[in-house]
Amino acid sequence: xxxxxxxxxxxxxxxxxxxxxxxxxxxxxxxxxxxxxxxxxxxxxxxxxxxxxxxxxxxxxxxxxxxxxxxxxxxxxxxxxxxxxxxxxxxxxxxxxxxxxxxxxxxxxxxxxxxxxxxxxxxxxxxxxxxxxxxxxxxxxxxxxxxxxxxxxxxxxxxxxxxxxxxxxxxxxxxxxxxxxxxxxxxxxxxxxxxxxxxxxxxxxxxxxxxxxxxxxxxxxxxxxxxxxxxxx
Length: 233
What we know:
By secondary structure, this protein is of the alpha/beta class. Helices cover about 30% and strands about 25% of the residues. The chain has helices spanning about 35-45, 60-70, 85-95, 115-125, 175-180, 190-200, 220-230, and strands spanning about 5-10, 30, 30-35, 50-55, 75-80, 100-105, 130-135, 145, 150, 165, 170-175, 205. The strands form 3 sheets. Strands 1, 4, 5, 6, 7, 10, 11 and 12 form an 8-stranded mixed beta sheet that branches. A two-stranded antiparallel sheet has the order 2-3. The longest helix has 15 residues, at about 220-230. It is globular and about 55 Å long. It starts with a strand and ends with a helix.
Protein backbone atom coordinates (compact mmCIF):
# COMPACT_ATOMS: atom_id res chain seq x y z
CA UNK A 1 0.00 0.00 0.00
CA UNK A 2 1.40 3.39 -0.99
CA UNK A 3 2.31 5.69 1.88
CA UNK A 4 0.47 9.01 2.23
CA UNK A 5 2.76 11.74 0.97
CA UNK A 6 3.76 14.84 2.89
CA UNK A 7 6.13 17.73 2.22
CA UNK A 8 7.66 19.80 4.99
CA UNK A 9 8.68 23.11 3.44
CA UNK A 10 11.29 24.80 5.59
CA UNK A 11 10.84 28.58 5.46
CA UNK A 12 11.60 29.66 9.02
CA UNK A 13 14.89 31.41 8.30
CA UNK A 14 15.44 35.12 8.82
CA UNK A 15 17.43 35.58 5.62
CA UNK A 16 20.17 37.63 7.30
CA UNK A 17 22.75 36.72 4.64
CA UNK A 18 20.52 38.15 1.93
CA UNK A 19 20.72 41.61 3.50
CA UNK A 20 17.14 42.45 2.50
CA UNK A 21 14.20 44.02 4.31
CA UNK A 22 12.31 40.73 4.48
CA UNK A 23 13.23 37.04 4.69
CA UNK A 24 14.37 35.67 1.32
CA UNK A 25 11.51 33.15 1.08
CA UNK A 26 9.11 36.06 0.55
CA UNK A 27 11.16 37.83 -2.10
CA UNK A 28 9.95 37.63 -5.69
CA UNK A 29 10.96 35.22 -8.43
CA UNK A 30 9.02 35.50 -11.67
CA UNK A 31 6.46 37.76 -10.01
CA UNK A 32 5.70 35.39 -7.14
CA UNK A 33 7.16 34.81 -3.69
CA UNK A 34 10.00 32.29 -3.80
CA UNK A 35 8.11 30.21 -1.23
CA UNK A 36 5.02 30.06 -3.45
CA UNK A 37 7.13 28.98 -6.42
CA UNK A 38 8.67 26.22 -4.33
CA UNK A 39 5.31 24.94 -3.10
CA UNK A 40 3.86 24.97 -6.62
CA UNK A 41 6.51 22.46 -7.68
CA UNK A 42 5.30 19.96 -5.07
CA UNK A 43 1.65 20.55 -5.87
CA UNK A 44 2.35 19.76 -9.52
CA UNK A 45 4.66 16.82 -8.81
CA UNK A 46 2.51 15.01 -6.26
CA UNK A 47 -1.24 15.63 -6.62
CA UNK A 48 -2.98 15.35 -3.26
CA UNK A 49 0.19 15.94 -1.24
CA UNK A 50 -0.16 17.46 2.24
CA UNK A 51 2.14 20.44 2.76
CA UNK A 52 3.42 21.54 6.16
CA UNK A 53 4.89 25.03 5.93
CA UNK A 54 7.34 26.08 8.65
CA UNK A 55 7.53 29.85 9.08
CA UNK A 56 8.97 32.44 11.44
CA UNK A 57 6.25 33.03 14.01
CA UNK A 58 6.16 36.77 13.26
CA UNK A 59 5.53 36.10 9.55
CA UNK A 60 2.67 33.58 9.82
CA UNK A 61 0.00 36.29 9.48
CA UNK A 62 1.99 37.89 6.66
CA UNK A 63 1.99 34.60 4.74
CA UNK A 64 -1.72 34.06 5.31
CA UNK A 65 -2.41 37.53 3.94
CA UNK A 66 -0.07 36.94 1.00
CA UNK A 67 -1.88 33.72 0.05
CA UNK A 68 -5.27 35.43 0.29
CA UNK A 69 -4.18 38.53 -1.61
CA UNK A 70 -2.61 36.48 -4.42
CA UNK A 71 -5.35 33.80 -4.59
CA UNK A 72 -2.80 31.12 -3.72
CA UNK A 73 -5.20 28.49 -2.43
CA UNK A 74 -2.72 25.75 -1.53
CA UNK A 75 -4.06 23.75 1.45
CA UNK A 76 -1.28 23.80 4.02
CA UNK A 77 -0.59 23.27 7.68
CA UNK A 78 1.28 26.25 9.15
CA UNK A 79 3.85 25.59 11.86
CA UNK A 80 6.03 28.11 13.68
CA UNK A 81 9.78 27.68 13.47
CA UNK A 82 11.99 26.82 16.41
CA UNK A 83 15.29 28.05 17.79
CA UNK A 84 17.25 26.15 15.10
CA UNK A 85 16.40 24.25 11.93
CA UNK A 86 16.48 21.05 13.99
CA UNK A 87 13.83 22.38 16.33
CA UNK A 88 11.77 23.68 13.41
CA UNK A 89 11.70 20.22 11.81
CA UNK A 90 10.78 18.70 15.16
CA UNK A 91 7.82 21.09 15.40
CA UNK A 92 6.67 20.10 11.91
CA UNK A 93 6.94 16.39 12.65
CA UNK A 94 4.25 16.76 15.29
CA UNK A 95 1.83 17.15 12.38
CA UNK A 96 3.06 14.08 10.48
CA UNK A 97 1.49 10.64 11.14
CA UNK A 98 3.24 7.29 11.30
CA UNK A 99 3.41 5.36 8.06
CA UNK A 100 3.78 8.43 5.85
CA UNK A 101 6.40 9.35 3.27
CA UNK A 102 7.94 12.73 4.04
CA UNK A 103 9.99 15.03 1.87
CA UNK A 104 11.79 17.86 3.65
CA UNK A 105 12.67 20.72 1.33
CA UNK A 106 14.23 24.15 1.67
CA UNK A 107 11.62 26.78 0.90
CA UNK A 108 14.26 28.72 -1.03
CA UNK A 109 15.00 25.96 -3.54
CA UNK A 110 12.29 26.84 -6.08
CA UNK A 111 14.16 25.60 -9.17
CA UNK A 112 13.86 21.89 -8.44
CA UNK A 113 11.71 20.36 -11.19
CA UNK A 114 8.36 18.62 -10.68
CA UNK A 115 9.59 15.56 -12.56
CA UNK A 116 12.54 15.13 -10.22
CA UNK A 117 10.37 15.56 -7.11
CA UNK A 118 7.90 12.98 -8.42
CA UNK A 119 10.75 10.54 -9.07
CA UNK A 120 12.11 11.02 -5.55
CA UNK A 121 8.75 10.22 -3.97
CA UNK A 122 8.35 7.17 -6.19
CA UNK A 123 11.79 5.75 -5.40
CA UNK A 124 11.51 6.56 -1.70
CA UNK A 125 8.63 4.12 -1.29
CA UNK A 126 11.23 1.34 -1.34
CA UNK A 127 13.89 2.79 1.00
CA UNK A 128 13.67 4.40 4.48
CA UNK A 129 15.74 7.41 3.39
CA UNK A 130 16.70 8.87 0.03
CA UNK A 131 19.01 11.86 -0.32
CA UNK A 132 19.67 13.76 -3.57
CA UNK A 133 23.32 14.66 -4.09
CA UNK A 134 25.44 16.26 -6.78
CA UNK A 135 29.10 15.43 -7.48
CA UNK A 136 31.69 18.03 -6.59
CA UNK A 137 33.11 19.60 -9.76
CA UNK A 138 35.44 22.16 -8.21
CA UNK A 139 39.02 21.53 -7.10
CA UNK A 140 38.81 21.35 -3.31
CA UNK A 141 41.33 23.00 -1.02
CA UNK A 142 41.45 22.18 2.68
CA UNK A 143 42.19 25.46 4.43
CA UNK A 144 42.03 27.05 7.83
CA UNK A 145 41.99 30.64 8.96
CA UNK A 146 44.89 31.82 11.05
CA UNK A 147 45.20 35.42 12.19
CA UNK A 148 42.81 36.53 9.45
CA UNK A 149 44.69 34.69 6.68
CA UNK A 150 43.68 31.46 4.93
CA UNK A 151 46.37 28.79 4.87
CA UNK A 152 46.59 25.16 3.78
CA UNK A 153 46.18 22.42 6.37
CA UNK A 154 49.40 20.37 6.13
CA UNK A 155 48.99 16.74 5.15
CA UNK A 156 45.26 16.97 4.43
CA UNK A 157 43.96 16.57 0.90
CA UNK A 158 40.42 16.27 -0.41
CA UNK A 159 39.63 13.62 -3.02
CA UNK A 160 37.08 15.30 -5.27
CA UNK A 161 36.00 11.98 -6.78
CA UNK A 162 34.29 10.93 -3.53
CA UNK A 163 32.81 14.30 -2.54
CA UNK A 164 29.15 15.09 -3.13
CA UNK A 165 26.93 17.96 -2.02
CA UNK A 166 23.60 17.10 -0.40
CA UNK A 167 20.42 18.78 -1.62
CA UNK A 168 16.77 18.72 -0.72
CA UNK A 169 14.11 17.40 -0.82
CA UNK A 170 15.39 14.66 1.45
CA UNK A 171 12.96 11.76 1.66
CA UNK A 172 12.17 9.61 4.69
CA UNK A 173 9.66 7.14 6.03
CA UNK A 174 8.00 9.14 8.78
CA UNK A 175 8.66 6.58 11.52
CA UNK A 176 12.40 6.69 10.76
CA UNK A 177 12.47 10.49 10.79
CA UNK A 178 10.33 10.95 13.89
CA UNK A 179 12.45 8.47 15.84
CA UNK A 180 15.66 10.25 14.78
CA UNK A 181 14.30 13.59 15.96
CA UNK A 182 13.81 12.25 19.47
CA UNK A 183 17.56 12.70 19.89
CA UNK A 184 18.99 15.69 21.71
CA UNK A 185 20.07 18.55 19.47
CA UNK A 186 23.70 18.58 18.40
CA UNK A 187 25.49 21.39 16.54
CA UNK A 188 26.93 18.77 14.16
CA UNK A 189 23.48 18.22 12.64
CA UNK A 190 23.71 19.98 9.29
CA UNK A 191 20.66 18.47 7.60
CA UNK A 192 17.99 15.85 8.17
CA UNK A 193 20.18 13.12 6.72
CA UNK A 194 22.82 13.76 9.38
CA UNK A 195 20.18 13.45 12.12
CA UNK A 196 18.93 10.13 10.75
CA UNK A 197 22.44 8.79 10.23
CA UNK A 198 23.44 9.68 13.80
CA UNK A 199 20.46 7.62 14.94
CA UNK A 200 22.04 4.52 13.41
CA UNK A 201 20.09 4.35 10.15
CA UNK A 202 21.71 3.96 6.74
CA UNK A 203 21.08 6.40 3.92
CA UNK A 204 20.36 5.87 0.24
CA UNK A 205 21.34 8.38 -2.42
CA UNK A 206 20.50 9.44 -5.96
CA UNK A 207 21.98 12.07 -8.24
CA UNK A 208 20.19 15.39 -7.89
CA UNK A 209 19.73 18.35 -10.21
CA UNK A 210 22.58 20.80 -10.70
CA UNK A 211 20.22 23.78 -10.97
CA UNK A 212 18.40 22.96 -7.74
CA UNK A 213 20.22 25.80 -6.01
CA UNK A 214 19.49 27.22 -2.59
CA UNK A 215 18.85 30.97 -2.71
CA UNK A 216 20.83 32.36 0.21
CA UNK A 217 22.59 35.49 -1.05
CA UNK A 218 21.87 38.29 -3.51
CA UNK A 219 24.15 36.54 -6.01
CA UNK A 220 22.04 33.37 -5.70
CA UNK A 221 18.91 35.39 -6.43
CA UNK A 222 20.45 36.90 -9.55
CA UNK A 223 21.39 33.43 -10.76
CA UNK A 224 17.96 32.01 -9.95
CA UNK A 225 16.24 34.81 -11.86
CA UNK A 226 18.47 34.17 -14.87
CA UNK A 227 17.75 30.43 -14.82
CA UNK A 228 14.04 31.05 -14.40
CA UNK A 229 14.03 33.50 -17.32
CA UNK A 230 15.78 31.01 -19.61
CA UNK A 231 13.34 28.26 -18.66
CA UNK A 232 10.41 30.52 -19.49
CA UNK A 233 11.75 31.45 -22.95
